[in-house]
Amino acid sequence: MASSSNMELLVPPPQLSEHPGPTLGVPLVSIVVPALNEQLTIAEFVSWCKQGLLEAGVDGDILIVDSSTDQTSSIALQNGARVLKTPKRGLGRAYIDALPFIRGKYVILGDCDCTYDFRRLKPFVEKFSQGFEFIMGSRFCGTIEPGAMPALHRYLGTPVTTWILNVIYSSHFSDIHCGMRGLTRDAFVAMDLRSQSWEYASEMVLKSVHMKLKTTEVPIHFLKDRDGRLSHHKRSGWFSPWKAAWINLKAMFIYGPAFFLTRPGLIALTLGLLLMLPLTVGPVTVGPITFSLHWMLLGLTLCVLGLQCVYMGILGQTFFDYTGESTQKWLRRFQYHRTVGLSVLLGCCGLILSSFMVADYVQEGFRLSGLKTSTYLAVEGLFLMIAGFMTFTFVLLLHASEVSMKRKIGS
Prior knowledge:
Blueprint: H1 2-9, E1 15-17, E2 29-35, H2 42-56, E3 60-66, H3 72-78, E4 82-85, H4 91-98, E5 106-109, H5 122-129, E6 134-144, H6 151-169, E7 181-184, H7 185-191, H8 200-210, E8 215-222, H9 232-236, H10 240-254, H11 257-276, E9 284-286, E10 289-291, H12 293-319, H13 325-333, H14 336-363, H15 373-410
Parallel strand pairs: 2-3, 2-5, 3-4, 6-8
Antiparallel strand pairs: 1-4, 5-7, 6-7, 9-10
Helix pairs in contact: 2-5, 6-10, 8-10, 11-12, 12-15, 14-15
């Protein structure tokens, strides 16, 4: 722990600067935007924000999270924004650094390159007033100025990754990479963002689903870069969009392991049982096909793999259960005493079924000759013993995760 603390001390803390002027009351809306060498557009962007707040009829402030080496921060201050100076540590980290300095009840995020039209904040404010907690902007439901979005992003990257996320999480977003989005400050805090870079965008969307936030979309206008300005992807090189897509996919997979485990596991377990159970006492012939020991071993493999996936999928659900509903559901279904008793019963039954083959093995002089009914019973018994042990360890981890969660909440 000491080394970790020392490493953190090496990083300069964020520093907030505000232009001298009358102290404002608590604003309803905070516009929070990272900046990296945006002196070309920052003055106009702040002006857009003020116009958007005025037309929406709300009080608000503008917080620029600046890691620039040019005049971005001084220009933003001169135009009435608040500036939080931070080291350059990634887009996601900029939002994490900004959180303690956000004053508004509602937060609107975006870019300060004047590609998102912050003059049109009214739709976001209206959705907040209707009780929505997470509001995604959608370029595809709005308008995209010619030349604003590269064809690779417009027709491949964004639609494909949005589709993948919707499939994994059963959501209905149309543009998960839109940088202009809004959420309540309470939801922002509860999300506990961890992503340091571009993947913050997916993490935020994924956690909104896990948290069961009241979510909607609003159409936005996406504009092309100003003459003389290069987007951050172009500044970073041709590989930057592919890297961003990869790390966003990583976030989708990490926050949604149950999709790859629970349902596929149930399918594998069902197929395995269908292969294994009919062969408990010997081969079965169906038409020209005889199902014998080899088929039964395949069924055993599918059963073990499927059961393991199901249990891991359930644990994956509890890891990101912000409401507590899923965890409580599984704790009710896998009560400790009842499940441990079932595990012992499964193990004992497995030992009994396997004992017949052990008896034959001893009687035949410690060797097995040919396939007998006891061989098939032993395979069935082997699965029951494995299932019993897996169920026992699973219920321990399930209840341990509840204890761990209570400890974290309590601390």
